[in-house]
Amino acid sequence: MIYDCAIIGGGPAGLNAALVLGRARRSVALIDNNQPRNAVTHASHGFITRDGVKPAEFRRIAYEEVLRYPSVDHLQSEVVSVGKMESGFEMLGSSGLRVLARKLILATGVKEIFPEIEGFYPLYGKSLFNCPYCDGWELRDQPLVVVSEFPSVFHTAKLLLNWSKDLVVCTNGQAPLSGEQKNRLQSKGIVVMEQPIAAFIGQNGRLEHVRFADGTWVPRVGGFVTPQFVQSAPFGERLGCERTELGGIKTDEMGRTSIPGLYSAGDASYFMPSQLIFAAADGSRTAIGVNMDLMEEDYE
Question: Which of the listed residues 175, 203, 225 is the one where a domain comes to its end?
């Protein structure tokens, strides 16, 4: 069997793409390795009708809705290779799975690389996060830390002032801020600490203080740590897709990549902002692009 479209990735982008294509009566192979990036998150926010939903519940509801459409097959497997063929694409899975499809959507998302700081992971998703729009409300009016080694820390610190006026910016031994930027932050009462961080100290998932390599420490109850984002899967690069300046898979307004028949949706294409509602909307847009292109081919 050759599917109309295969989708690699069962996050909000891939799921919404499968939903739209299923409703368009297209045959779809939704291939998912069941390893969602937001698995550590207790609740997801900012998605109307689903604000505060647990990630596992979101996936349960989404799969229940998508699989109502008989032309959508859910194939649980880790894709290990993707090949371009004259008639479309061939995907091979670690379980021996082989899928052929006329079109392919990469909805593989991104993964975060956080600074290697002792004590971070027991606190991540509980009192340390990476997205103020996702978790800023829950930390409002609390003493917070902002950890970033990147120039974007200036923007992040300014942004967070709307949630808390008690901020400490830590650059972990790096110098991403100019003197003028430091002066502007300090004029707002934001403390800037540039020494390396030795550890996050806390218990039961709650941050208590940040300890620095020089022995000093500062009490905090939560905060935001900026990761580096990289592609979760290498398929776009291996197939020769053009990339954006940030490292995303470059697409047009309907999700088409530089490779004919290949599309990308969600975080894998735009990297930021990394939110459920953005990814789901992008999956819908890309699915419409796929359906339009299939329609045109079928009328040739």
Answer: 225
